[in-house]
Amino acid sequence: MSHSPTTTAALRLCIVNGYPQASRENFDRSNVGHPHDLFKDFLSREAPNATSEIVYVADPDFALPEGTTIDDFDGYIWTGSDLTVYHVDDPRVAGQIDFARALTAAGAASWGSCWGLQMAAQVDGGEVAVNPNGREWGIARNIQLNDAGRRSPMLEGKPDTFDGFIMHLDEVTRLPQATESLGGNEHTSIQAAIFEHGDAVYWATQYHPEYNLYEMGRLIAARAEALVREGHFPDEDAVATYANDMMALYADPQSETLRDLLSIGDDIIDPEIRELELRNWLLLVASRSN
């Protein structure tokens, strides 16, 4: 099926990887895709004339690329992270908070998945805490848009109820003043929000529109020990079976057997639905760059 890119604008984007170096090295050992590569793949399809640069904001020597300032980029994309955003004394977290505040002060346009939502809430005066429901993993089921979500430009065109890829232990428990939740589900009440300060705008979701079945299958396989320990699977063989079924459905998305087995519909399989929030954000960034 042919698909026109979302924008042909020559955008310059900065992908902000929130994982510390040790975790990135573990991704390589565990055969897990790096989240910045998922965004680069999305941009290659949806903004083919854009350029993107990756920065590792958790590293002690973090800096923007030599010779650049915040204003040199049209937008900033925050990945997930395995750090804890309310551990503000951790220098790997404190530096990210400082950078997020600098982006707000500069009036930047940002996107954030998972950690990105929690970072935005923490920086703006909201609260993040351990989710009492435990880990939400694999697929967030039945995310329901509220009235604000249905009116939101971020979620324009999204079904009122949908599933999304997810993997998190913490959640936003309170949004900053004047920031509304756009929707949630039974496990996590705040799954999406827009943060605005002057010219600065930050769109964020707790779920991951940038993932696909193959990449989530790899991530689940790598988290087998934790998923078994937390009681989500009886043993690591069961995790491997589930992860392999996910990756098999990625290879054969029309398989009704696998769709039924995993309870997966078009909202997960079809990028036209799954990635819609990111495409809407690209349109926002392109309009600001004119």
What would you say this structure looks like, in words?
This protein is α/β, with parallel strands linked by helices. The protein folds into two domains: 214 residues, Class I glutamine amidotransferase (GATase) domain (Rossmann fold); 59 residues, no CATH class. The protein has twelve helices and eleven strands. The strands form two sheets. A nine-stranded mixed β-sheet has the order 2-1-3-4-11-10-9-6-7, sandwiched between helices. A two-stranded antiparallel ribbon has the order 5-8. α3 packs across α4 and α6 packs antiparallel against α8. The two termini are 30 Å apart.
What is this entry, summarized?
The protein has helices at 21-29, 35-46, 91-105, 115-124, 147-151, 213-222, 224-229, 236-251, 256-262, 266-269, 271-274, 276-289; strands at 12-17, 51-56, 75-78, 109-113, 127-130, 136-145, 161-168, 170-174, 181-184, 192-197, 200-205. By secondary structure, the chain is of the alpha/beta class.
